[in-house]
Amino acid sequence: MNDSQNSVAARRVRTRFAPSPTGFIHLGNIRSALYPWAFARATGGDFILRIEDTDVERSTQAAVDVILESLEWLGMQPDEGPFYQMQRMDRYREVLEQLKAGGHVYPCYMSMQELDALREQQMANKEKPRYNGLWRPESGKQLPPIPEGVQPVLRFRNPQGGVVAWDDKVKGRIEIRNDELDDLVIARPDGTPTYNFCVVVDDIDMAITHVIRGDDHVNNTPRQINIFLALGAQPPVYAHLPTVLNEQGEKMSKRHGAKPVTQYRDEGYLPDAMINYLARLGWSHGDDEIFSRQQFIEWFNLDHLGRSAAQFDEAKLRWVNSQHLKAMEDGALAQLVAPQLAKRGFAACDATQLRAVCALFKDRCDTTVALADWAERLLGESVPEAAQERAEHVTAAVVPALDTLAKALAECPWERPAIAAAIKKTLAEHGLKMPQLAMPVRVLVAGTAHTPSVDALLELMGREKVLARLGKR
């Protein structure tokens, strides 16, 4: 560890998530938020949310809302923020003046047409396209005449010679020769500062110690480090995370079909299951597959971040969600299922019955939506249509046994052992095997031949509803 890293390590950890609200946040984005959040929580530090909204044409309030809703749902609320870059323009201009005073920036009057022509010529010569320093002032250099009526951009005077180096917590040591970097535009002709400059000012002002972000930013890092140094500030520790790929092996993006994070909430996934699944997309703790939020925070550090791109797998996500459903306390699960029912206009149902539905069905469901489907099926006013299963199982041959069972159920105590005894007695009386009676009973009372134990199902539904449904043949 070098002196710079030792100095950072001695400070309180402060991480940030800095999305651009130009599209709805998806799981690849939120994975980039998860690790800085977890690192802050694991070290007793601070997690800051910054909205990088300088792309005014593409930024939308709707996208900001999805960011805030997603973090709220996942329980990843920031300690500070959200801060909006568009509200910090005066601060950026103040720092620009500081750089001007220090001789770190200069006006460049090269037009876009001239720049495009330069790049075309460089590419034709098989050279790396880059700004050629035409307007960079140097001792003894004659600058071109300033064209009339042209507003210049401001370029950062990148150091010449030497290297920019950092020890990336994911990628290891990275060194870039300064001569590979051209002089970056840090303010547009109208004075609006550009991305790489704003990021540095924000990270300095917010005392960010660790920048944990996607590896699409690696090329920005040496430029940003040089701006930090020009401002006399210490760069943070960097960790550049590999890309998250979609199921087709492409970079996850809205263009490639990625869903907004809030859609997973609406589809009945659990926040802790999402945290669990996303954590494993680029980090590991031995062979542990299923773990709680608290375990993740206790285990998390930057030393076990993976170097390879991770691939999203919705089937695996559903499995992880099912494991968390099974482990969840029935009452807490019922509180998540109730809003799913309310969205369908389902009248408020008995809390005890809803808990019982969760207890009986959570082992065979992978989302709260699937649990709500069962609750609606069992606790609603009508049985879902199941014409094919009725035709297959509710035959004339079994009707006498159904009548006998209905009579026995009308008279027995309404508890599972007594219901089981009534079913057993009916089977013996009519010479039937369990499936021959249980299947038609399930179809009549639940609209499907496939449910958990029939006596548990009937007990849950209540005598009145069971008898009413058995009578509708």
Walkthrough of the structure:
- By secondary structure, the protein is mainly alpha-helical.
- The chain is built from 20 helices and twelve strands.
- The strands form five sheets. A three-stranded parallel beta sheet has the order 1-2-3. Strands 4-5-8 form a three-stranded antiparallel beta sheet.
- The chain is elongated and about 110 Å long.
- Its EC number is 6.1.1.17.
Low-confidence spans: pLDDT under 50, at least 5 residues? none
Counting helices, strands and paired strands, the structural category is mainly alpha
What is the share of helical residues?
40-55%
* Strand arrangement across the biggest beta sheet: 1-2-3
* Number of β-strand runs: 12
Strand content: 5-15%
Work out the radius of gyration. Answer: 32 Å
Shape: elongated
Enzyme class: ligase
Domain Glutamyl/glutaminyl-tRNA synthetase class Ib catalytic: 13-319
EC number: 6.1.1.17
Motif ('HIGH' region): 19-29
Keywords:
three-stranded parallel beta sheet, three-stranded antiparallel beta sheet, mainly alpha, aa_tRNA-synth_I_cd-bd_sf, Helicase, Ruva Protein, domain 3, Rossmann fold, 47% helix, 12 strands, 473 residues, 11% strand
Helix-strand layout with pairing:
Blueprint: H1 3-9, E1 14-17, H2 27-43, E2 46-51, H3 61-73, E3 80-84, H4 89-101, E4 105-108, H5 112-124, E5 153-156, E6 163-168, E7 172-177, E8 185-187, H6 195-205, E9 210-214, H7 221-230, E10 237-241, E11 244-245, H8 261-266, H9 271-279, H10 293-299, E12 310-311, H11 314-327, H12 330-343, H13 351-361, H14 368-379, H15 387-393, H16 399-411, H17 416-430, H18 434-446, H19 454-461, H20 463-470
Parallel strand pairs: 1-2, 2-3, 9-10, 11-12
Antiparallel strand pairs: 4-5, 5-8, 6-7
